[in-house]
């Protein structure tokens, strides 16, 4: 069964852990010096937060986490059907976990990952450069979020 994933950048990790623990009525399942994660069943979500210097605050990326290789193959097929460029990252370490993953961005630059977690890691890890996937509306962020080119400066209003 698939699980929805959301990763949010925060300014104050401790305050955010307290807030989300109250909101979810649950303590995080993983807490590190710069990261926390809740694996919730109701709603079924992998909700993660991280505090990185200079990183974007707010939603960094969203995705679908699967439980086995068959589901991963199914979701990879969906990425192909979405008709956007897909980066097949393969085996990687990210967010204190070892995973198999691929990335795609929607037409507005919202970055999605599809992944199967295969174990824990003692390091946060890093992410590939996915600039070719994201539109100018995507934001550059830290690990676990694809590094994309900054949007061009706009002149005037709107």
What features would you describe in this structure?
- This is VOC family protein.
- The protein has helices at residues 13-24, 69-81; strands spanning 3-9, 30-32, 35-41, 44-50, 58-66, 87-94, 97-105, 111-120.
- The chain has 158 residues and is an alpha+beta fold.
- The chain has one domain (3-120): 2,3-Dihydroxybiphenyl 1,2-Dioxygenase, domain 1.
- The protein has an eight-stranded mixed beta sheet, covered by helices on one side.
- A hairpin with a 2-residue loop joins strand 6 (87-94) and strand 7.
- The longest helix has 13 residues, at 69-81.
- It is globular.
Tell me the name of the CATH homologous superfamily: 2,3-Dihydroxybiphenyl 1,2-Dioxygenase, domain 1
Name the average pLDDT. 81
Largest sheet: 8 strands, mixed
Quaternary arrangement of the chains shown? Answer: single chain
Under the CATH scheme, which class? Alpha Beta
Specify the number of helices: 2
Which bin fits the share of residues in helices?
A: 10-25%
Throw out a few tags for this protein.
single chain, 158 residues, alpha+beta, 2,3-Dihydroxybiphenyl 1,2-Dioxygenase, domain 1, 8-stranded mixed β-sheet, globular
